[in-house]
Write a structure and sequence with these properties.
The protein is of the alpha+beta class. It has 11 helices and 8 strands. It has a 3-stranded antiparallel β-sheet with strand order 3-4-8. A 3-stranded mixed β-sheet has the order 5-7-6, with helices on both faces. It has a two-stranded antiparallel sheet with strand order 1-2. α1 (45-61) crosses α6 and α5 (146-157) packs across α6. The protein is globular and about 55 Å long. The termini are far apart.
Length: 268
């Protein structure tokens, strides 16, 4: 059963096409003249994961180099990520953790459970708990649906939302821009810190690891990329220290041995 009629311009002609009612809409089935449309307001988990997969492919076409030189290190990062994903506030979607061959100290997440950790950041961390803190923070962005919310805001601002929604190609392009060039909002960073801190404790990692890593970066002479795109490092450290004093998870002490960590990431 179809609802209202939508007017779509194609090849210079105005064509009346039946528009599905809300009950009939399957977001990735909205196709007109070979263009796939997405309605972000109704996006479900499966569709978000597919959007993340499309964004991942576009990122690699843009030159993001996935690191595969040392499978043991790649598996180690994935094991940490999957452990945190299981206890995250959004554990019902699959997560993909990838190492990026890049010496800069950086990490980022896109939609649908895709997390990227630069080799430079892996080397900068001193313990597994510090690396787990960064990964937990990026999972926090996914749990908070920060990328999806920003996609919707940017699409509305740029006036590319039509009767059928937003084209998948436009959303993938926005996703690439968010991942590579556009920093998260201050509110999103604080939210991801809070979710990541809580998740670390639930997974058994020493929550101090996130604090020590951020403190080390904040004290550096010039902030690395991870902080240049993530504002207010000192305020964020202070907020995390307050959370640690007030709500740290008892018994969460894993990941503090630097020798074990160095042996796990040797060769990166």
């Amino acid at each position: 059963m179809y609802g209202a009629i939508a007017l779509v311009v194609a090849s210079g002609l105005v064509v009346a096409t039946p528009q599905p009612s809300k009950a009939d809409i399957n977001i990735f089935d909205l196709i007109f003249n070979g263009i796939q449309y997405i309605q972000l307001s109704n996006l479900n988990d499966e569709q978000e994961v597919d959007l993340g997969r499309q964004t991942d492919q576009a990122l690699q076409r843009q030159g993001v180099r996935i690191y595969n030189s040392n499978p043991a290190v790649v598996n180690y990062v994935d094991e940490i990520g999957q452990r945190l994903a299981t206890t995250s506030a959004r554990s019902n979607i699959p997560y993909t953790f990838q190492v990026v061959a890049d010496d800069s100290v950086n990490a980022f997440a896109t939609s649908g459970g895709f997390v990227y950790i630069h080799t430079g950041l892996i080397r900068e961390a001193d313990t597994e708990a510090e690396l787990a803190g960064v990964i937990a923070h990026e999972i926090g962005h996914i749990a908070g649906r920060h990328a999806i919310n920003r996609m919707r805001d940017i699409a509305l601002t740029n006036g590319i939302v039509g009767a059928l929604g937003v084209s998948q190609d436009d959303l993938v392009n926005i996703g690439v821009q968010l991942a590579l060039f556009l920093p998260n909002s201050r509110g999103a960073e604080y939210h991801a810190d809070e979710l990541g801190f809580e998740n670390m404790g639930l997974a058994g990692y020493d929550q101090q690891g996130l604090i020590t890593f951020m403190s080390k970066l904040a004290e550096g002479g010039s902030p690395p990329e991870f902080f240049s795109t993530h504002p207010d490092p000192n305020n964020r450290v202070n907020n995390l220290q307050t959370m640690y004093q007030e709500s740290r998870q008892p018994g969460a002490t894993d990941g503090n041995n630097p020798e074990v960590y160095r042996s796990q990431i040797s060769g990166v």
